[in-house]
Amino acid sequence: MAHEINNPVNGIINYTQVLLDDAEGSDAAATDILQRIIREGERVAVIVSNLLAFSRQRDEVVGNVKLNEVIEDCVALLHYQLDKDAILLKTELPDELPDLKGNPQQLHQVFLNLLTNARYALNQRYAGKDDNKRIDIASRLIQVDGRPFVETTITDYGVGIPQDVIDRIFDSLFTTKPPGEGTGLGLSISKGLIRDHQGQLHIESVPGHHTTATVVLPVSDSDGDQEERG
Ligand SMILES: Nc1ncnc2c1ncn2[C@@H]1O[C@H](COP(=O)(O)OP(=O)(O)O)[C@@H](O)[C@H]1O
Ligand SMILES: [Mg+2]
User: Which residue has the higher pLDDT, 151 or 4?
Assistant: First the structure.
């Protein structure tokens, strides 16, 4: 389970943060090293999560998932990095959204990948601070063919995706990032996981303006009931 590795990693990040709060302003060398430990820790968490997506591919998609909790977990995991990069985050997540049908770890994986991509695109466009260096996350209840779904959009105002690239972004191992920064696995894994959830994942972009990832997931038809699929 990703949690068994990510919990201690989060512990390392949190304890380092305590030391960092002390060192900031008084010890520049220690501050730099402690910040590096936190960044590397967050990288470990994201990489582990991606690798584990493979071993999880046979997991059942069962149970009720609270989407807001999944998204808040992802935001918490990336919080330090987003803060350091001066990336603003605007979330519009209604409290009254119904539970989704699915596997929370897999959905966590998907949203972590989408947010990681958004962050990278924003850092490519803006080295420092900018009012437009922003990610918007919004969810809403929709009906498709008379059945309820939750649609979530993640929009970043980063570099965007050129026309000749967008057809390939869901291909396994396709990346435009240098070695060590991209694996080209994030979107292909995410697409597979969302398909397993009988949902949809689309990405549209206006290069130089924004990129929007849209995730549509079916609402659970029961509260507390565990439904199994074969
Ligand atoms: N939000 C985004 N903004 C700009 N480009 C993106 C975004 N999301 C994905 N891409 C493009 O899609 C490619 C594939 O993404 P992904 O499968 O997550 O692999 P990776 O992030 O490891 O490169 C990226 O290399 C990038 O070119
Ligand atoms: Mg990625």
Answer: 151
